[in-house]
Design brief:
Belongs to the peptidase S8 family. 24% of the residues lie in helices and 18% in strands. It contains eleven helices and 20 strands.
Length: 543
Amino acid sequence: MSITLLGGLGAAAPPGAAAAPEPAQKYLVFYKDGGSAAAQRAAEAAGGTVQGRDDKLGYLIVRASDPERIGADPSVIGVTLDRPIGKIADVPATSGVRPAEHVGAAEHARSAAKHVRSAQGGDPLSGRQWDMKMIGATPAGSYAKARGSHKVLVGVIDTGVDGRHPDIAPNFNRALSRNFVVDQPTDDNGKTLDGPCEHKGCKDPADVDDDGHGTHVASTIGSPINGIGVSGVAPDVSLVNLRAGTDSGFFFLKPTMDALEYAADVGVDVVNMSFYVDPWTFNCASNPSDTNREQLEQRAILEGMRRAVKYARAHGVTLVSAIGNEGLDLGKVKTDSSSPDFPKGVEKKRSVDNTCLNVPAELDGVISVSSVGPGGSKASYSDYGVEQTDIAAPGGDMFDGGTDIKGSSREILAAAPENVMRAKGLIDAAGKPKTSSVIRDCHHGTCAYYQYMEGTSMAAPHVTGVAALIIGRFGKPGKGGLQMDPAQVERLLYATATPKGCPVPRTYRYGTGESQVCEGPTAKNGFFGHGLVDAARAATAAP
């Protein structure tokens, strides 16, 4: 089924022409508190049919052809198109038991870990992980005091996680992992979106990542110390794949809400969100530059994500998000020319202001992470803002000339799925890397791939990993294993961060020629928030 989120919907008919009736499509209708019945009546009065509901987050799923009429009812806050997120039952990729060959590899890796720790003090590629050294996630630092616990469930809301990667499999919780999206080969205009479906019903198993982004994030958080590849910030935690991103990298509202709600319900302790919710980079509740329908959609995204974040946090989920990669002061954005980004080619330039939010990064209750390079400066691409930046972490920066680290080594090295490396032509038929940005590491009869990447997407998982260390130390027995009040996790993250003041002068000029201005004191500023996340201090701090 082809669908359009915005595109041609709502376009005015030529003068004197009768508007063609719109086809019925599925919408999410968010209602005010106590407004469920009224919203249902409004939907039915507009010719819609209620096909489902989520009372936890307060919305109806309505098949209708006149969303604006529904949205005009005073009981309704916002209305947005829903993309299909599943055609088959949502079950784990397997019964929750790893296939025999992967169980063996995992156990072999675990048995090798003691030898590796005593002989090398880390994993074979640890010497390339300048990011771990920067935050004290080393054998002499946090690893000696706190490595997390398998009772700590870390949710990775992303494009998927390669649960069979040798440097993720030992910590991958297949039984709890879920995929909330269905691949869509093409968009409404027939342009390639996710490409051909690889699995029945176009739904990938819950241990597959066809993009590589989510696997990289998961590896930074929790790759084990197992004698191969790299080590994560919290090498003993459990990684839960909560896939809400498509193969093509889009994150739409309902899969994202579903992932957050599921995380809350099964006892996940902390989630990493290295994305923004499509199709709007900035969501404005009442922007005169937008049509009525566009305003309804953005209000729905704002309200839906606020409710999902509130629900997750109330159920003990600490929420960590990348701040964004446009090099923008998010408190002073004036224009947005990248939205809506779906389907392709419908972007428009519009005026925005500080009431227009990038979500989830700018939502209350979400820890927003900026990025630094190996020299410690804020990465040139990292968004910032004195109101928006909560904490900083290493995310890499190819333009950071502040150290003797060169080229792609200035980026973050973490696990990469072999299937993605092959699909992107980054390794040859024999498996040999064709670029210095990809590393193949072979030990104990097992080979695996790793990739250098940069972005606030790479910074956020460092904070997520440190949050997991804190929960492992101070969490109490609860649903899923351990539980800890997110407010306390957040307090300790900030209290243990290394304070980092604005550069002098405050107008920082990057090698790209770009100038950015840092505002605020050392205790809390627009570049680094409360400071640089510190795993070593978090591993020893008092509660």
